[in-house]
Design goal:
Length: 135
């Protein structure tokens, strides 16, 4: 059984560049992702520069059409967990996560998704940047 949720501490929202950077560091933790083997991105040139790329997109969007807002959302944090009873491999969980997020967000969103393998229940963790996309 799969469960998708937003973490309670943040209600799934990120409100600063510092918090976005911390979230991305947590998501991409090499100890949790088999040394980045289970990290993928969409509209990200290099997963290791994800935060810089997302913040650059935000800056460009503000310059072109948006104004920064008070309490702006810099991104979202979702977790997709799988039961150990599902008997899925990390590769299968990662593929399911990538397909789910692409279907959910479409082609214009920036995101990374990482499959964490450090617990008995495999889970995908994803920060994304949707609100300031330049379309």
């Amino acid at each position: 059984m799969t469960v998708i949720y937003m973490p309670k501490q943040s209600n799934g929202t990120v409100h600063s560049s510092k918090d976005l950077n911390q979230l991305i560091d947590y998501v991409m933790n090499p100890e949790k992702t088999n040394d980045f083997e289970y990290v993928s991105g969409q509209n990200i040139l290099d997963i290791h520069s994800t935060c810089d790329e997302m913040l650059a997109t935000r800056t460009m969007a503000i310059a072109l059409k948006n104004k920064p807002r008070k309490n702006e959302i810099y991104g979202y944090h979702f977790v997709q967990s799988f039961s150990p009873d599902d008997h899925l491999t990390p590769e299968q969980v990662h593929e399911i996560g990538c397909k789910t997020m692409k279907e959910y967000l479409g082609n214009s969103a920036e995101f990374i998704i990482a499959t964490h393998t450090d617990k008995p229940h495999l889970h995908n963790v994803r920060p994304d940047r949707v609100l300031s996309q330049v379309v």
